[in-house]
Amino acid sequence: MRLFDLSGKVAVVTGGNGGIGLGMAKGLADAGARVAVAARNAGKAKEAMATLGKDAAFFAVDVAKENDCRAMIAAVAKQLGRIDILVNCAGMSIRKRPEAYTDEEWHRVMNVNLTGTFVCSQAVYPEMKKVGGGKIINIGSMMSIFGATLVAPYAASKGAVVQLTRSMAVAWAKDNIQVNAILPGWIDTELTVAARQQIDGLNEKVLSRTPVGRWGRPDEFAGITVFLASAASDFVTGTAIPIDGGFSISG
Question: How many secondary structure helices (H) and strands (E) does the chain include?
């Protein structure tokens, strides 16, 4: 359908070299967008880009560093000519009880998950204005809704991502820039493999609460990403959409 056609569009996906980010990048590429994978690990990105088509490009970035974020956005705009879509997917967590975190650990999580999202969005704003509008998709979490013992800074950052999404959506609506968030549930990725190793009984708890009875897959983010990146969502902004197999509505 023409509403979902992204031909001629350029999409930046931070953290697009694996997991949910790669699932989103594949969806964008399949819909016709040229994808810029922005990540730290060039080797991992090379493997990922083999699945994204010949027009995909890699741009090195550490989203915890403000100058890196701004330089990456400038490099994409210069090399690919425009930026229409930004997916802020780079993220991390450190699992400890709240009283055990160091200041450095707290700031590291916040800088990647929250500040990186803000700076990349701020940097891309003038590029989207140049082309008459754009789409920004931020990645929250179930921890944007719930709390948990071992993820205080992660939960704080992901809750803040939702509020940041709403604020940017209001501020930039007049510029035809729609800003939305996706809240992944329990998805089978490298990060959640580690969580299952660290948290006793996590797998059983997730399966028992998730109505569809399984963990999600990264490729299941392709559809929602294309929707939020395309003309089909031009009247959708400031939302936070759970992609969680029903986890957030189950008691």
Answer: 9, 7
Instruction: Evaluate if residue 153 carries a pLDDT over 90.
Output: yes
The yes-or-no answer on residue 125 being catalytic is no
Burial of 236 (0-12, 13-18, 19+ CB in 10 A): middle
Among all chains, which residue has been given the structure tokens 């590029």? Answer: 127
Cβ of 193: how many Cβ atoms within 10 Å? Answer: 10
59, 154, 172, 186: the catalytic one is 154
pTM above 0.85, yes or no: yes
**Pairing label, strands 10-14, 134-139:** unpaired
Side-chain half-sphere exposure of 140, counting CA atoms within 13 A: 27
**Cβ pair 59, 72 in contact under 8 A:** yes
Q: Where are the beta strands (DSSP E) in the chain?
A: 10-14, 34-39, 57-60, 85-88, 134-139, 177-184, 240-243
* Residue 216 in tokens: 């999600």
For 222, other C-beta atoms within 10 Å of its C-beta total 19
Question: Strand pairing partners for 34?
Answer: 10
Q: By the 8 A CB rule, do 207 and 214 touch? A: yes
What digits encode the pLDDT tens for the residues 155-180? 999 999 999 999 999 999 999 999 99
Q: Which two tokens stand for residue 231?
A: 């003309």
How far is the C-alpha of 42 from the C-alpha of 52, rounded, in Å? 15
Q: Give residue-wise pLDDT tens across range 39-87.
A: 998 888 788 888 898 899 999 999 999 999 999 999 999 999 999 999 9
